Amino acid sequence: MTDPSAPAVGWTFLRSRRWIGYFAMLLVFSIACVWLGNWQFERRAEARAEIERLDANYGAPPVALAEEVPVLDAFDEDTRKWRTAAVTGEYLGAPYLARNRPGPQGVGSDLIQPLRTTDGAIFFVNRGWVPVDGSDADSGTIGADELPQPPSGVVEVEVRLRASEPEVPGRTSSGSTVASIDLPELARLTDSEGEAYTGAYGMLVSESPAGDHGVLPPKPERDEGPHLSYALQWYVFILIAAIGVAFAARQEYRGLNAGSTAVRAQDRRRDARKSRRGPSDADVEDAMLDA
């Protein structure tokens, strides 16, 4: 119990090692929240940029592949992603399966078919999703002739352009399956290094004459996600933490300075406000229970 005759401490306790530790923890927590909030703002900016690309490119008329991708090993994803390209050529050999792809029936694979263009280059076309696990194909339970077959001979294809996917660390190609649509890896597997498009591949839109293909993806949603609300949430956490520290400091101040003139004056002002407002509902309920 505080001794009323003891001298007032004031706010000097805030200079103690314990409170300096509290302030340090608040500072570290605030820095972490600011970093996470800014990260969410960056994620939102990326999502909005993707929406802008969809709006500008997804419905654009097809342009010749050589014009959209003039260099085999480079691709300007910021401006050309989702654009429609037209290419003429002939499908080659059996497809590759990009495994672990989500689809309408669970996890399956994407059919990646090499196409030799009339210019002599190799261009890889994603011909849709199939409910086939890559391990099934490698084990021999799924034959190449059981997969959707592309048209034979010269074919005119329209595709939407996508950038080469990165290599998946720790995962390698196995037989006819690949871990990702890593175009340099596909060029190596098809012995077309130096003559293959390794910057961009195409997601099938249409082909003439038409052949069988897997499930083609729908248009991506124009959704920037909850990144803005998450970002603001982290800044609210800073405010809550600061209010909590301030409240704890005030309570400790009142406990250490219970007999001081300042604290007694605060108590008198609080009691005066209560008397002007009259008894609260809780006070009335307590009086009724006592009676």
UniProtKB/TrEMBL annotation:
It comes from the Bacteria. Keywords: Cell membrane, Membrane, Transmembrane, Transmembrane helix. Residues 259-291 are annotated as: Disordered. InterPro entries: Surf1/Shy1 (IPR002994), Surf1/Surf4 (IPR045214). It is found in: Cell membrane; Membrane. Its main location: membrane. It holds the Pfam family SURF1. Residues 282-291 have a biased composition (Acidic residues). The lineage of its organism: Bacteria, Bacillati, Actinomycetota, Actinomycetes, Micrococcales. The keyword ATP-binding does not apply. It is a multi-pass membrane protein. This is SURF1-like protein.
